[in-house]
Amino acid sequence: MAMNRETLAEMLAAGRSIESIARETGKAPSTVGYWVNKHGLVSQHAAKHATRGGIERDQLQGLVEEGLSIRQIADRCGVSPTTVRHWLRRHELRTQPARYSRRDAPKPEQLHRECERHGWGAFVRVGAVGHYRCARCNSEGVSERRRRLKEILVAEAGGCCVVCGFDAYLGALQFHHRDPSTKAFEVSGRGITRSLQRLRLEAAKCVLLCANCHAMAEAGMLDVPTQSHP
User: Fold this and answer.
1) Alpha-helix runs per DSSP H in 66-195
2) To bridge 213 with a disulfide, which of 22, 88, 163, 182 should be the other Cys (CB 3.0-4.6 Å)?
3) Whether residue 68 sits in one domain with residue 25
4) Do residues 13 and 86 share a domain?
5) Residue 148 maps to a domain
6) In a 3-state reduction of DSSP, which class is residue 110?
């Protein structure tokens, strides 16, 4: 989530360091440093390095995590690339174009960016084109799609256990294959990632059971109706 410019400016004007702001806001110093640079602000603590062309560690770390190259950092700070290299070594930091979001870098499977919902974290390549998406947002999206697809399949299968009529909780309803020899995949878990068309074809081979009845059926303790609806 973005940090408010006016709030940051007031804190910096009061002499607060980036580390101090980070502790109060519960954010990483690199995130605070990123927004300080993004808003064109400067920490008063950076002044002690100014006469030598120095760069404060938190400021430099924020620029590194923004995905900038050494030359881009030099342009942003108004210093030479040699100075940037010096302070990168001094602060034990490294630019990592293969990890961050530089446009001219090779496209890795994962890189580091800031998500509006989850803050700084891993972004993964998704889809055939290879766009990047927050890994946590992507995982939540997959889970939501699975839930929607299961809702459709359960509704089409009658909406309740064919044996006992249980329908109180979607997560406790399961698909049981009438003839195990025809099973192509399980209509649950990772199986739900398939297309709705394929899921419908597989669900047509099944009856809907609650978890309890399903366990009994698998143990041979229950005769399962051959029809989907009770």
Assistant:
1) 70-77, 81-90, 135-156
2) 163
3) no
4) no
5) yes
6) strand
Cα atoms in the 13 Å half-sphere on the side-chain side of 203: 28
Nearest to 171, CA basis, from 150, 187, 185, 191: 150
**Cα 33 from chain centre:** 22
90 contacts 108 by C-beta, under 8 angstroms: no
Instruction: Give, in degrees to the nearest 5, the angle at Cα 210 between 206 and 211.
Output: 105
Q: Which of 141, 131, 153, 133 is nearest to 198 (CA)?
A: 153
At 129 the three-state DSSP class reads coil
C-beta of residue 147 within 8 angstroms of C-beta of residue 170: yes
| Four-CA torsion 56, 59, 64, 69, nearest 10 degrees | -80
Q: Range of 81's domain?
A: 57-91
Specify the pairing of strand 173-177 against strand 131-134.
unpaired
Query: With contact defined as beta carbons under 8 Å apart, do 127 and 93 qualify?
Result: no
At 162-195, the pLDDT tens digits run 999 999 999 999 999 999 899 998 887 665 678 8
Structural domains of the chain, count: 3
**Phi, psi torsion values for 209, nearest 5 degrees:** -130, 155
For the chain, helix, strand, coil in percent to 5 are 50, 10, 40
Q: Report if residue 63 sits inside a domain.
A: yes
The answer on 142 and 79 residing in a single domain is no
Q: Which amino acid is at 25?
A: T
